[in-house]
Amino acid sequence: MTNPVLEGLAKATKSAVHLEMRDAYQPNDPEFIAWQNGKRLDPAADRSSWWRPFLDVVTETTARGVEMRRARIISEPVTDYIRYEYDVTFPNVRAGELVRWLPRRKAADIALPGTDLWAFDGTSVLFTYFSGVGEIVDREWSTDPAVLALVNSAFDAVWERATPHEEYRPR
Q: Which ranges of the chain does DSSP label H, i.e. alpha helix?
């Protein structure tokens, strides 16, 4: 099975943006469960102890000059899952991805798409649909100009208001 996110990243020439808007994803993820049981990544430890295969993709993509940005709209106080995401984001940043956090209360007046997405070069968008508990149930591509206008506008508005990962502290 091919991974549409990896396909989009491989074809991107300028930008790849990821908008996340859920407070929990994949509750049965083994890494999340390990985190709940006390496992923490150590930035000072050997990179092989916290590097993930996706980070090789991030490094390769950004080395080609593609700007990768991820914005997360989150509820505060944050859920355990968001605290976990925060704790495991430093490898993404080290690999070259820019990450920002926006409390949901600061996004109330932004017209947002109804689900998480990846947008590539501003010309295509991959929507990801989730079950109520956060399992991926489907994905769908769009190149519709009106959809792209909404997605690009929404992401830009979120990015402008959001706090860079290095400055954000979960509450």
A: 4-11, 30-36, 53-63, 80-87, 90-95, 145-161
> Is 170 within a domain?
no
- 45 is a domain residue: no
What would the two tokens of residue 1 be?
Answer: 């099975």
Give the pairing type, strands 116-120 and 163-164: unpaired
What confidence tier does 1 reach under pLDDT thresholds 50, 70, 90? very low
Supply the pLDDT for residue 2. Answer: 85
DSSP for 25-58 reads --TT-HHHHHHHTT----TTS-GGGT--HHHHHH
For residue 76, give its domain range: 4-38+50-118+127-164
Counted domains in the chain: 1
Q: Where are the alpha helices (DSSP H) in 88-144?
A: 90-95
Identify whether 103 is preceded by a cis peptide bond (ω within 30 of 0).
Answer: no
Q: Is the pTM of this model over 0.90?
A: yes
CA separation for the pair 137, 135 (Å, rounded): 6
Q: Quick check: 134 and 115 in contact, CB under 8 A?
A: no
The answer to the question of residue 169 being in a domain is no
Type of residue found at 118: W
Q: Residue for token digits 């505060």?
A: 76
Position 64 in a domain: yes
